[in-house]
Amino acid sequence: MIPRLCNPSKTHSFFLFGARGTGKSTMLRQAPFLKNCLYIDLLKPDVEERYALSPKLFEQHARAVDAKKWIVLDEIQKAPKLLDIVHLLIEERDQRFALTGSSSRKLKRGGANLLAGRAFVYQLFPFSFPELGDAFALESALEWGSLPKIVSLNNNADRANFLRAYVQTYVKEEIVAEQLVRQLDPFRLFLPIAAQMNGQILNFTNIAADTGVDHKTVQTYFEILVDTNMGIFLNPYGRSVRKVQRQSPKFYFFDYGVKRALQRTLNQPLPRQTAEYGDAFETWFINECHRLNSYQQLDFTFSYLRTKDDVEIDLVIERPGMAPALVEIKSAPRIDERHIRSLKHFAKDFPKSDLICAAQVPLAQNMDGVQVLPWKDAFQSIGFNR
Question: Which domain range does residue 315 map to?
């Protein structure tokens, strides 16, 4: 078992959200404090049907459990009405619940009882590099991602087959089964286009023209990806600087292997010193920041900065109690003045900030006030703890 950085409370009810296949069920089944719990797997059709049709039956079964013992409801979005019972039992009995879900969209859309702070909220992601330790291989993470099943497979053919099945299951189980879209075909057409737009500033109107739906529907499609934990928005920096800024968000898929599967490029190599490789490294680095921030509960906020004349900072990180960090992400093994030009351009606008270039360089160096760091050192300099 690979220990996870996610550390949910052992004394307080909680939600554990995460995309399918990130290991939520495995983590809870192996957690010592949940050893003697009542475990209800709502992915099983007969279990889901039984309790969805009769929440009172669930209440009877839950009340038969000692109030000091845990109850696990796996994939709670399958039967959101049970949350009213959960709320009641937390109030009446101080019962402790572990509630997992791959999607919050159905809960939000249906007005489900989200327990109003009575349950903490945690996220689980594909493996982060500190979790894998010496077993972590950057090239594999860029090409195939780091979902637990991918990490356990021994050859690329199996990895490709798993990822193809994964995206098919996502459409079938998350989109069709949960009825998240009215028309499935436009959404199917949207997915590879969204993969192609990974890491770029989103133009909803252009994507709508390619997909055959209106721009508001495209916005909804991206929101579905976020709500089903398939990706994150990176919003433009919100404060004024001396240059006029772009205002549309970027979108990054949560795992580059899944992105390549959606784009149908799994059979293509990912050679170094290409735009695709650079995109993979940037996506991975930003996702790692997002994961570590969540696991370590640091409350960092992330944005990008690009002016209308296309001067860009990949990542602006606002850190409570610390100066902002401006980060350029470069996959190159050698860095020169060209790579840090944007950081120096904005240095006057962020006079007390840390200027960091995270790259694949072997050794750290200081270039005219910019810290050029190996990517592992960059995470530490940003403020993440190993």
Answer: 288-382
